[in-house]
Amino acid sequence: MRKPRCKPAGTGKPVTMGWHYRKSIRLGPFRLNLSRAGVGHSVGARGARYTRSARGHRYLTLRIPGTGLSWRRPLRRRTTRRTTRRR
Q1: Each residue of 26-75: pLDDT tens digit?
Q2: 24 pairs with which residues across the strands?
Q3: Contact of 40 with 54, CB cutoff 8 Å
Q4: What are phi and psi of 33, to 5 degrees?
Q5: Is 46 exposed, middle or buried (0-12, 13-18, 19+ CB in 10 A)?
Q6: How many whole angstroms separate alpha carbon 39 and alpha carbon 16?
Q7: How far apart are CA 47 and CA 24, in angstroms?
């Protein structure tokens, strides 16, 4: 007998589980994160950390150590000032 596959609501496609890879190398307050998407880095102390992912996304993470509680906020891209063209 075959096991039924899970289907997300509203789609007829079965869900398959993907493999993930992540390795973290710690160098004091600096952390180098290796994944399939590339290399990211983060810096910070035990309760606060700034992260730049392999895809270029930036995050600020605040944690309460020992509780499992954390708060993560994506940071916006820096906007560049547009220069006006002179005619």
Answers
A1: 999 999 999 988 999 999 998 999 999 999 999 999 999 999 999 999 99
A2: 33
A3: yes
A4: -110, 120
A5: exposed
A6: 26
A7: 18
State the DSSP code for 36.
Answer: T
Instruction: Point out which residues pair with 33 in neighbouring strands.
Output: 24, 40
For residues 64 and 45, give the distance between their C-alpha atoms in angstroms, rounded to a whole number: 12
- The angle at the Cα of 27, spanning 22 to 30, to the nearest 5 degrees, equals 80
β-pairing verdict for 38-44 and 48-52:
antiparallel
> What contacts 76, CB < 8 A, 6 or more positions away?
none
Q: Where are the beta strands (DSSP E) in the chain?
A: 22-27, 30-35, 38-44, 48-52, 58-64, 69-75
Distance CA 43, CA 2 (A): 48
Nearest-angstrom CA–CA distance, 39 and 58: 13
